[in-house]
Write a structure and sequence with these properties.
Aminopeptidase, Glucose Oxidase, domain 1, 2 domains, 14-stranded mixed sheet, 27% strand
Length: 420
């Protein structure tokens, strides 16, 4: 089987830079992929779309009473703007932001232990003036770690915009030790739209051209991160699979989609299914590759489809001698918008062992990734593809179990958005 780990690794080297959504870095990442496709003699389609983006102009967090403290802070994207001269208010630590924590929280700047949709909703209903959310670990070295840059999603701001900042966990502890009474939060940001896009190319099936298997991987990264593990690895593996099918024409059509702006909220895959809704009926399966390559780790298949596909993969990895994990569940990646439309999916992932690889940090680098592990994963995906793409009858039923549909709906917050 002509699958080369070194070639995958060399492609990743070309993408070894920050590829944040809507920036020149993301555009450069798209160019690397496009140039690789053109070198194979194909002409990819680039479908552009708009993505909300923000620029923090000014942010400042001060504890003003009883002891003054200036705290390093990053503004939450899309959390709006504080007053021009900042918001000064009473301070409260609201722990888990349960109802009992929020009885007297109205009009206060609150520190929460963590931030999620439910917590944000409760803060909004409690009418807090601003929020502070810690990130990272207490023992992080500020010289070696970055303060998280976070943003609110659509599901948050349906409840309104609350000005908020992210601070280091060590600073959160330091603040609470002073028994703070008042705080001042200054936040100014520009909220606008930027350009992103999907790269699409396909190899027509020789016998069943109207039956389509879609391959997805996102090529953007997060702030600070060169995103070798997440997800230059998956993007490069898709290029290798494309090369394989060009040399070994498939019976069914294989369509490759490199998705932009996944890290912002699956914008690329959401745009694709919305734009191509009429053609979705032809798609039999989505194969998503997101996270691959760590030297110390374990391959895992996460199946968003019927039990039979789990059994098929289990028999296959035992047959070919490819150790891996397997579970039937949803996976937070570009498979979700397809599954939401009733298209079964399988995600091929190689989870790094704890401490063996870093995700969503400046430490997501090539050093802990090897051509051998990339090749092992790519070979298994290619073998699985051969069995399904070239099957006499397509073996995967176009159906998603009810329990997984419920999980997808919960992930996409359909009930909450409908109520709102």
């Amino acid at each position: 089987m002509d699958i080369k780990g070194k070639r995958i690794y060399d492609t990743m080297k070309k993408m070894n830079f920050i590829r944040l959504s809507t920036t020149e870095g993301e555009k450069s990442g798209a160019k690397v992929i496009t140039d690789e496709i053109k070198a194979m003699g194909l002409e990819p389609v680039f479908e552009d779309f708009k993505v909300p983006c923000y620029e923090i102009v000014n942010v400042k967090l001060e504890i003003t009473e009883p002891k003054y403290m200036l705290v390093e802070a990053k503004g939450y994207g899309y959390s709006g703007n504080a007053a021009k001269d900042g918001i000064t208010a009473d301070f409260a630590y609201v722990e888990a932001a349960e109802d009992i924590d929020l009885i007297d929280a109205e009009g206060k700047i609150v520190l929460v232990s963590n931030m999620g949709y439910e917590i944000y909703e409760r803060l909004a209903k409690a009418k807090v003036a601003g929020f502070i959310a810690p990130s990272g670990g207490y023992f992080d070295d500020p010289k070696k770690t970055d303060l998280d840059e976070r943003m609110l999603r659509k599901g948050h701001i349906t409840y309104g915009q609350i000005p908020g900042v992210s601070i280091r966990m060590k600073d959160a502890v330091k603040i609470l030790k002073t028994n703070p009474k008042k705080a001042k939060l200054t936040l100014e940001q520009k909220e606008e739209e930027g350009d992103s896009g999907n790269i699409i190319v396909e190899v027509k099936g020789t016998k069943h051209p109207d039956e389509v298997i879609v391959y997805t991987a996102h090529y953007d990264s997060v702030v600070f991160s060169k995103g070798m593990y997440d997800n230059a690895s998956g993007s490069a593996i898709l290029l290798e699979l494309l090369r394989y099918f060009l040399k070994n024409p498939p019976l069914r059509t294989v369509r490759f989609i490199w998705c932009g702006s996944e890290e912002r909220g699956l914008f690329g895959s959401k745009d694709y299914v919305k734009r191509h809704e009429e053609q979705l009926k032809d798609i039999k399966l989505c194969i998503n590759v997101d996270l691959a390559g760590p030297i110390i780790g374990r391959d895992t298949a996460i199946v968003l489809a019927e039990d039979k596909l789990c059994h098929m993969i289990e028999y296959m990895y035992k047959e070919v001698g490819h150790p891996m994990g397997l579970r039937q569940d949803i996976y937070s990646s570009d498979c979700i918008p397809f599954a939401d439309k009733g298209i079964p999916a399988v995600n091929f992932v190689r989870y790094g062992a704890p401490g063996a690889v870093s995700c969503h940090t400046r430490n997501d680098v090539l050093d802990v990734i090897s051509p051998k592990t990339l090749e092992n994963t790519a070979r298994f995906v290619a073998r699985f593809s051969e069995r399904t793409v070239n099957a006499y009858m397509f073996p995967v039923e176009r159906k998603i179990p009810d329990d997984l549909v419920e999980k997808i709906d919960k992930y996409l917050r359909k009930k909450q958005l409908k109520e709102d």
